[in-house]
Amino acid sequence: MKANRAFALALLVAGGAASSNALADGDARSRQSQPSGARDNDTTRVFKRLGKNAIWRQLSVVPMRFPTFHTQGLVKIGDRFYVSAVELLEKRVSNSTPTDALYDFSLDRNAGAGRGWLFKFDARGALLGKIELTSGAVYHPGGMDYDGRDLWVPVAEYRPNSHSNIYRVDPDTLEAELVFSEADHIGGIVRNRHGNSLNGVSWGSQRLYTWTLRERGEHRLPRVSAGRWEPHASFYIDYQDCHYQGIEYMLCGGVGGYDTPLGSIAFGGLDLVDLRNNRMEHQIPVNAFIDEGTGPNPRLSLAHNAFWAEPTGNGTLRVYFMTESDNQADLLQYEVTPWIHR
Question: Secondary structure of the chain in the HEC alphabet?
Answer without folding.
Answer: CHHHHHHHHHHHHHHHHHHHHHHHCCCHHHHHHCCHHHHCCHHHHHHCCCCCCCEEEEEEEEECCCCCCEEEEEEEECCEEEEEEEEEEECCCECCCCCCCCCCCCCCECCCEEEEEEEEEECCCCEEEEEECCECCECEECECEECCCCEEEEEECCCCCCCEEEEEECCCCCCEEEEEEECCCEEEEEEECCCCEEEEEEHHHCEEEEEEEECCCCCCCCEECCCEEEECCCCCCEEEEEEEECCCEEEEEEEEEEEECCEEEEEEEEEEEECCCCEEEEEEEECCEEECCCCEEEEEECCCCEEEEEECCCCCEEEEEECCECCECEEEEEEEECCCCC
